[in-house]
Amino acid sequence: MTNANCQQMKRYWSFIVSLYFWVELFGSSAVLFPVALLIWVVTLPFDRRMYLLHQFSCLWANLAFRLNPLWHLSVTGKERIDPAQTYVMVSNHQSGADILVLFTLRLHFKWVAKRSLFFVPFVGWNMAMNRYIALRRGRKSSMQRMMEESKQALLQGNSLMIFPEGTRSKNGRLQSFKSGAFHLAITTRLPILPIAIKGTSLAIRKGGFLISRQPDLQAVILEPLPFESFSDLSPKELAESVYQKIEQELTSPPGPLS
């Protein structure tokens, strides 16, 4: 077989594997959505934080990983999380796989996500039922509304998950952090939970469709930062401090897989 034929076979195989992943992902979403809808209807009168529905969404993400033999996820530092604590959670953002990774933590939180995602069939509808927080980029009024809804969610005891880069990195390198998440942590006097995700930029290739084998995906839970440790910092200074902590972890040698 010629080199050209080998390359063609690799591209074909990559396409088939990627097609399987996306069909499995959205197919399972379609199958599980009626269950999510039932949970939402039944728990709506007494579960105003949507805790049970969010936990079901976490189970769905774990199922997506189990049905994908190409990826293996290792989570380290999970013992640093206090399940009774409300956090402002911040993570780097390399690809769409980050969302699945963070769901597997099984920690109760509200996502801050771009508004267009809420219109995606099944997945977006589930986001709306969970009362995740929508943001329309580039609109000041949307940003103000997001900040107010995020503050209220935090004060109600929901942790908040924000990608402070604002969008996915195009090359896997950490981009500068916006200050919104850190302003929320300061105003609500809540701790920050930094998370470093490794390997997802290779798991889903640039363009968003083709995926690749990635046996060493890692999520590293860094030491939480209590309010007292940053009470004298401005949001911009705090953003830079947390940026440095996540950057240091991303550039460190990979830890052992579990």
Throw out a few tags for this protein:
8 helices; globular; 258 residues; alpha/beta; Glycerol-3-phosphate (1)-acyltransferase; 7-stranded mixed beta sheet
Account of the 3D structure:
There is one protein chain. The protein is an alpha/beta fold and 258 residues long. It has a single domain (3-250), classed as 3-Layer(aba) Sandwich (Glycerol-3-phosphate (1)-acyltransferase). It has helices at 3-43, 51-66, 97-103, 123-129, 140-155, 180-188, 200-203, 235-250; strands spanning 71-76, 88-91, 109-114, 133-135, 159-162, 192-198, 214-221. The protein has a seven-stranded mixed beta sheet with strand order 1-7-6-2-5-3-4, with helices on both faces.
Strand order across the biggest sheet? 1-7-6-2-5-3-4
General form: globular
Structural class: alpha/beta
The ordered H/E elements are HHEEHEHEHEHEHEH
For the secondary structure, the number of strands is: 7
Amount of beta strand: 5-15%
Mean pLDDT reading: 89
Helix content: 40-55%
How many H/I helices?
8
User: Please, how many domains?
Assistant: 1
CATH class: Alpha Beta
Q: Please identify, by name, the CATH architecture.
A: 3-Layer(aba) Sandwich
Sequence stretches where pLDDT stays below 50 over 5 or more residues: none
Q: Please name the CATH topology.
A: Glycerol-3-phosphate (1)-acyltransferase
Radius of gyration: 19 Å
Q: Characterize the largest beta sheet: strand count, sense, and whether it forms a barrel.
A: 7 strands, mixed
Q: How far apart are the termini? A: 38 Å
